[in-house]
Write a structure and sequence with these properties.
CATH superfamily of the largest domain: FAD/NAD(P)-binding domain
Bound molecules: flavin-adenine dinucleotide
CATH class of the largest domain: Alpha Beta
Number of helices: 9
CATH topology of the largest domain: FAD/NAD(P)-binding domain
Largest sheet: 7 strands, mixed
Shape: elongated
Radius of gyration: 28 Å
Length: about 350
């Protein structure tokens, strides 16, 4: 067992967790990051939409991030946190291999899990020919024949969104989507082709997506497939501390609610990145990590200031000191003589 009591234990070493750790390290805080090494965008070849890092491999970004955390005195370990519990002076995090770590504050930056529809060949193409976010992949597939898989009510919106990147959009209803009259009008207005029937497979040749085959046998030649996944916060650790995930207003998944500085409803427990913001991209998750790091530092400063005040007055509170002073010194406690005005010296006896 590591007996160090860290200022902050961070579970999750993605963009959010590492950014928070860097912020806290630069604030002279002792920080431990525990990471299981499965960031959400691992299947993608490059990160897009991150100013100054366009196209960088996701693993490279995290490796640089880890070095920065270490350079400010932080510690990063590989491990899978399975539960956490409150202790008299903070939190203890328990790993799958029974290691235990304790900290005064806990930040959970575990990201989210994309639940993919169970269609043959789809998982193998995830992050390559099968994409979800036009801001991450739209430029790379601009002008191509793009399919959109019907997975729920948001798929019509997704088809209209991807229409910005290509004129050749085909929406596969996949026996799960029934557009409203208004949506049919919008799809027709934007020349989106709509195909009825359940999708059986995502087809590929030499690892490159080539088309979609329906259960009834017909095939469609598409070069990319957009799929709206169900996004589930990886919130087991937070739930072990009594928090519950909330349904996202869009219906796209579940997340953990926090305030603007990352504080959850459980005192001392914070969350940042995709676990609390399903829509966060890498740069957003990193920014939330910075804000939450600052929020945790402020919370620790408040606690330390309280300790300092209590320690300064020993067994006496500030209020009792003031009361005793008033009884003994009367108005002279302000530097004034009784019955005299300021600057006139002590009262005559
Ligand atoms: C295929 C794909 C491509 C994408 N492309 C882009 C893109 O081009 N640009 C962009 O901005 N965004 C992109 N995204 C979105 C991007 O992945 C997220 O915005 C980003 O990963 C969120 O960062 P995060 O730190 O919140 O979570 P993550 O990056 O998922 O990091 C969470 C970390 O926590 C760890 N963890 C989880 N549970 C535990 C546990 N119990 N114990 C220990 N560690 C744990 C995980 O191993 C992981 O390392 C893409 C997403 C996908 C799916």
């Amino acid at each position: 067992m590591d007996t160090t009591r860290y200022d902050v234990v961070i579970v999750g070493g993605g963009a959010a967790g590492l950014s928070a750790a860097t912020t806290l390290g630069r604030a002279l805080r002792s920080v431990l990051v525990i990471d299981s090494g499965t960031p959400r965008n691992a299947p993608a070849a490059g990160i897009h939409g991150y100013l100054s890092r366009d196209g960088m491999n996701p693993g490279e970004l995290l490796s640089i991030g880890r070095s920065e955390v270490l350079s400010y005195g932080g510690t990063v370990i590989d491990g899978d946190a399975v539960s956490a519990r409150r202790t008299p002076d903070g939190f203890e995090v328990i790993l799958g291999d029974a290691r235990r770590f304790s900290g005064r504050r806990l930040l959970v930056a575990t990201g989210l899990a994309d639940e993919l529809p169970p269609i043959d060949g789809l998982r193998e193409q995830w992050g390559k020919g099968v994409v979800h976010c036009p801001y991450c992949h739209g430029w790379e597939i601009r002008g191509q024949r793009i399919g959109v898989l019907g997975t729920g009510p948001l798929s019509v919106h997704q088809a209209l969104l991807f229409r910005q990147w290509s004129r050749e959009i085909t929406l596969f209803l996949n026996d799960t989507l029934e557009p409203t009259d208004e949506e049919w009008e919008k799809l027709a207005g934007r020349s989106v082709t709509v195909v009825d029937g359940a999708v059986a497979s995502v087809d590929a040749v030499d690892g490159v997506l080539t088309g979609i085959t329906l259960r009834q046998g017909s095939s469609f030649d598409v070069q990319a497939l957009a799929v709206g996944t169900r996004m589930e916060a990886r919130s087991a650790l937070l739930e072990s501390l009594g928090l519950s995930s909330q349904v996202h207003p869009s219906g796209a998944g579940r997340f953990i609610e926090t305030d603007a500085m990352g504080a959850t409803a459980v005192r001392g427990v914070f969350a940042a990145g995709n676990v609390s913001n399903l829509m966060a991209q890498v740069i957003t998750a990193a920014a939330e990590g910075v804000m939450t790091g600052a929020g945790i530092n402020a919370d620790l400063i408040e606690e330390e200031t309280r300790w300092a005040v209590d320690g300064h007055f020993g067994p006496f509170s500030a209020a009792s000191e003031a009361a005793v002073s008033k009884i003994l010194l009367g108005i002279r406690r302000h530097g004034l003589g009784d019955g005299q005005t300021a600057g006139m010296g002590p009262a005559a006896t």
